[in-house]
Amino acid sequence: MNRKSLALAILILLSGFKLWSQNQATITGQAYAEVISALSAYENTQMHFGKFSPEVGGGQIVMTPEGVRTVQGSIVLGGGTAQPGRFIINGQADATYSIQLPAGSAELKHSTSNRTMTISNWVSDPPAGTGSGTLNGGNQTVSIGATLNVGSMEDNPVGIYTGTYSLTFAYN
Amino acid sequence: MKKLSIFAAILFAVVLGNNVNAQNNNSTASSTASAELITPIAITNEIPLNFGKIAKPAGVTGTVTITDDGNNTATYAPASMKTTLVTPTAAKFNITGDLNENFSVAIPSEIVLSKGDDNMTIDTDMNLSAANNTLDVSPKALYVGGTLNMAAQQPIGIYSATFDVTVTYE
Question: CB contact, 8 Å: A114 with chain B?
Answer without folding.
Answer: no
